[in-house]
Automatic annotation (TrEMBL):
Lineage of the species this protein comes from: Bacteria, Bacillati, Actinomycetota, Actinomycetes, Streptosporangiales
Organism: Planotetraspora phitsanulokensis
Protein name per UniProt: Peptidase S9
Keywords tagged on the record: Hydrolase, Signal
Pfam families per UniProt: Peptidase_S9 (PF00326)
Single GO term (MF): serine-type endopeptidase activity
Keyword Magnesium included in the entry's annotation: no
Length: 655
C-alpha cells in the first residue's frame, strides 16, 4: 500500500485503462496511461500483465507518442495504433496514427498507414479490419488533396446534414471507413464502405471468427435533424451490406461482440425516449443464420459485452445498487450474478478454460486487472498501478424520498473525523443524468477531499442507473424538482451523523450534476458554497447548441416548449445568494461554453459572489495534468474560503 498522495503526486499516478486477452488465454495486455517526462501531458504504453499473481507487470512499448488500441491476432501477435515515428520510412508523418504489429518476440513494426490515420482495429480469421479517416473522392489523390487544403490554410467544412460536432471534435470533411486486408497486406486493403457519408461516425464493430463478415453500427440520418443507429453486416469479400437490426423506436450500439461459433452477435439496444416515455437500455442478440433478434437480461443496463467460450451465454456488466457486477446471461434468458463484491467491473476477457479476466475498480479502488474464477472468487493480478492507502472510510448510506422511494449513496469520511471533530460536508451530484456513483473517478476523486478534511456524499437520486426502470421514470422530464428532493432527503440523513458538521456544507456537480448544482443554488440557501462544472444553465439555449440536440428534444420537446421554461435553472437567478464557482472548458461541445459564459454573466450582473475558472483548451472534462492540478487547487481554495472561513488565496498553479 502507498500513502494517498497530494494533488500533484496524484495526477502522476499510472492508470490502467484497458485489458486484452490473447485468443489462447495465455497473455494479458493493458494500455496504461502515465505522466510524460515533461510532466505537462499524459502518454500511453502497452504493459504485459502476468497471469501469475506473484509476478510483476512489465512494460512492452516505449515511445514519445504512446500506444493505444491493443488487439491480438489469432496467432497471438499484438496490433496497436501509434503516432510513433517509423525509422524505415522517409518523411514519416508522426502526427498521423498508423497501425503497428508487435510479435511475441521481436521489435514492433509499422504494417499500415493512411493519410488521415487509423483508429480502431479488429482481427479474426486471418483478416484485419481497420477504421480509417478518409476524404471523399479518389483515394489515390487523398494525400495530395489533404496537403493542398493545409497549404492553402483552409479549415472550413461545408455541412449538409446534422450533426456537425461530437463531444470535443468537429466532424468532417473526412469520413470513417472500414478497410479489410491480410495482416501483411493492409497498405492495399479493400474499402468495404466506399461512400458511407457519416454512417460510421462513432462506429462499434467486430469481425466474425472466420473473418468473412464485419458487424458494425450504422448511423441512419432521418428528417428534421433526427438520427438513429442500426446494426448491419458487411461481407468482407464483396462489400455488400445487409441490415441486422433497425427500429424507428430504438438504436443499436456498442459494444458489438460476435459469438465464438460465429452464429450470434450481441450489442446494446436503446429505447429512444420521448416526452412521456423514458429511455431504456437492454442486451440485444441477433441470430446471424435466421436474422431473428431478441432482448435478454431484463432491466439491466449493459456497459460491457463478451461471449462465453461455449457461445451459449454472454457476460455483461451493469450498474446495480452502487456497484457494477458481472452477470452471465444464457441464451435461454437465465441471469446469474457472477461477482458478489462491491466492485465495478469493465473490460471483460473470457478465457478458453472458462476463467474471466477483467478490470476491477470501485469507489474506493482504482482500476486493477483481476481474474474471476468459475465460482465467482476474484484474485488480484500484478498491476502497473500502486494500491493506495485511503485517507478515510467508505460507508453505504440511505434515505427515504417524499414518494417512499429508497435513495442510497456512498459517504466518504476522513480518518480524523469524530463527534468531537466533525468534518465539513460536500454533496457531490453525479453527471449523466443516467449514471451512478459506483466507480473510481480520476476527475472527481472524493479521497482527495477526504485528505483535505472533507466528508463527501455520493448519492444516487432519481434518474440514476442500477435501480430499475422506475428510478429513471421518476425523474424523466422532471429533472430539477424530483432530483432536488432526493438529494436533500439523503443530505439531511447524513447531516444527522455526529462525525459530520451540519453547518459547514457545500454542493458540487458536473454536467447534469452541474445542472443540479445550479438548480440547488436557486432553490435553497442552506449551502455555504456551490461549485458547478460544465453545467447546463439555460435549457433552451443548451438544447440548440449542444452536439446532439435531437436527443434532448425528445425529452423536452421543441425549443420554446413549456418544459424548458419549467426546468431551466436560469429562471431562478433572482433567488441565488450562495457564492458560486463556475468552471467550464472552451472545447466542450456537449455542454457548450455559452452555458458557462451566460451563467457567469448572470451571476456577475446580479451581484452574486462568484468566480469563473476557465479552461481555453479543455473539453467536457479536464484532462491535462497541469489543468487538473489547477482544478483541484481552485476548488479547495474556494471551499476553504466559504466553508472553512479562511481568507481567499489564489492557488499556486494559477499565479
Amino acid at each position: 500500500m502507498s500513502q494517498f498522495p497530494d494533488i500533484r503526486e496524484y495526477v502522476a499516478l499510472p492508470r490502467v485503462v484497458s485489458l486484452r486477452l490473447s485468443p489462447d488465454g495465455t497473455r494479458l495486455v493493458s494500455v496504461v496511461q502515465s505522466l510524460n517526462p515533461d510532466r505537462s501531458s499524459y502518454g500511453t504504453a502497452l504493459w504485459e500483465i502476468p497471469l501469475d499473481p506473484s509476478a510483476e507487470a512489465y512494460r512492452l512499448t516505449r515511445s514519445a507518442k504512446g500506444e493505444a488500441g491493443a488487439e491480438f491476432t489469432a496467432e497471438g501477435e499484438l496490433l496497436f495504433v501509434s503516432r510513433r515515428p517509423d525509422e524505415t520510412v522517409k518523411d514519416n508523418d508522426e502526427d498521423v496514427p498508423a497501425l503497428w504489429l508487435l510479435p511475441e518476440r521481436g521489435e514492433p513494426r509499422r504494417i499500415a498507414a493512411r493519410p488521415g490515420g487509423i483508429g480502431g482495429v479488429r482481427a479474426a480469421g486471418g483478416v484485419v479490419i481497420v477504421a480509417a479517416n478518409v476524404l471523399p473522392g479518389d483515394a489515390a489523390t487523398e494525400e495530395e488533396r489533404r496537403k493542398a487544403r493545409k497549404d492553402a490554410g483552409i479549415s472550413a467544412i461545408l455541412h449538409e446534414q446534422y450533426p456537425i460536432r461530437y463531444w470535443d471534435h468537429d466532424l468532417g470533411p473526412a469520413q470513417t471507413r472500414l478497410l479489410a486486408g491480410a495482416i501483411h497486406g493492409l497498405d492495399d486493403a479493400a474499402d468495404l464502405t466506399p461512400e458511407p457519408g457519416r454512417a460510421l461516425d462513432r462506429a462499434s464493430f467486430a469481425v466474425t471468427p472466420d473473418g468473412s463478415t464485419v458487424i458494425t453500427t450504422w448511423l441512419a440520418y432521418l428528417s428534421d435533424g433526427e438520427m438513429r443507429a442500426d446494426l448491419v453486416a458487411i461481407d468482407v469479400a464483396t462489400g455488400s451490406r445487409r441490415t441486422l437490426a433497425a427500429s424507428e423506436g430504438h438504436e443499436f450500439g456498442g459494444p458489438v461482440a460476435v459469438s465464438p461459433d460465429g452464429r450470434y452477435v450481441a450489442c446494446t439496444r436503446e429505447r429512444l425516449g420521448d416526452q412521456e416515455l423514458s429511455t431504456a437500455l437492454d442486451l440485444w442478440v441477433v441470430d446471424l443464420e435466421t436474422g431473428e433478434g431478441r432482448a435478454l437480461g431484463g432491466e439491466l443496463f449493459p456497459s460491457a459485452v463478451a461471449w462465453a467460450p461455449s457461445s451459449d451465454a454472454i457476460y455483461i456488466v451493469a450498474d446495480h445498487l452502487g456497484r457494477r457486477p458481472v452477470y452471465r446471461i444464457s441464451l435461454d434468458g437465465d441471469v446469474t450474478r457472477v461477482t458478489a463484491d462491491d466492485g465495478a467491473y469493465q473490460e471483460l476477457c473470457p478465457a478458453p478454460d472458462g476463467t474471466l479476466y477483467a478490470l476491477r475498480s470501485a469507489v474506493d479502488s482504482a482500476p486493477r486487472p483481476v481474474r474471476i474464477s468459475l465460482d465467482g472468487s476474484v484474485t488480484d493480478l500484478p498491476s502497473p498501478a500502486p494500491s493506495l492507502d485511503l485517507p478515510g472510510t467508505l460507508t453505504e448510506v440511505g434515505a427515504v424520498a417524499e414518494d417512499g422511494t429508497e435513495i442510497r449513496g456512498w459517504l466518504v469520511v476522513p480518518s480524523e473525523a469524530s463527534a468531537e471533530n466533525p468534518a465539513p460536508f460536500l454533496l457531490w451530484i453525479h453527471g449523466g443524468p443516467l449514471g451512478s456513483w459506483n466507480d473510481w473517478s480520476w476527475r472527481w476523486n472524493p479521497w482527495l477531499m477526504a485528505k483535505n478534511g472533507y466528508a463527501v456524499l455520493l448519492p444516487d437520486p432519481a434518474l440514476s442507473t442500477g435501480y430499475g426502470q422506475s428510478m429513471i421514470d421518476r425523474g424523466w422530464g422532471d429533472w430539477g424538482p424530483v432530483t432536488h428532493a432526493d438529494l436533500m432527503a439523503i443530505t439531511d440523513e447524513c447531516l444527522k451523523r455526529p462525525e459530520i458538521d451540519d453547518q459547514r456544507i457545500a454542493a458540487m456537480g458536473g454536467s447534469f450534476g452541474g445542472y443540479m448544482a445550479n438548480w440547488v443554488a436557486g432553490h435553497t440557501d442552506r449551502f455555504k458554497a456551490i461549485v458547478t462544472h460544465a453545467s447546463l444553465w439555460n435549457l433552451d439555449q443548451f438544447a440548440g447548441t449542444t452536439d446532439a440536440s435531437m436527443y434532448w428534444q425528445r425529452e423536452f420537446g421543441a425549443p420554446g416548449s413549456a418544459r424548458y421554461a419549467r426546468l431551466s435553472p436560469h429562471h431562478s437567478l433572482d433567488k441565488i445568494s450562495t457564492p458560486m464557482l463556475v468552471i467550464h472548458g472552451d472545447k466542450d461541445y456537449r455542454v457548450p461554453i455559452g452555458e458557462g459564459l451566460r451563467l457567469w454573466w448572470d451571476l456577475q450582473r446580479s451581484g452574486v459572489e462568484s468566480k469563473f475558472l476557465y479552461f481555453p483548451d479543455e473539453n467536457h472534462w479536464v484532462l491535462k495534468p497541469g489543468n487538473a492540478i489547477a482544478w483541484y487547487e481552485t476548488v479547495l481554495a474556494f471551499l476553504a474560503q466559504h466553508v472553512l472561513g479562511t481568507p481567499w488565496e489564489t492557488p499556486e498553479s494559477l499565479t
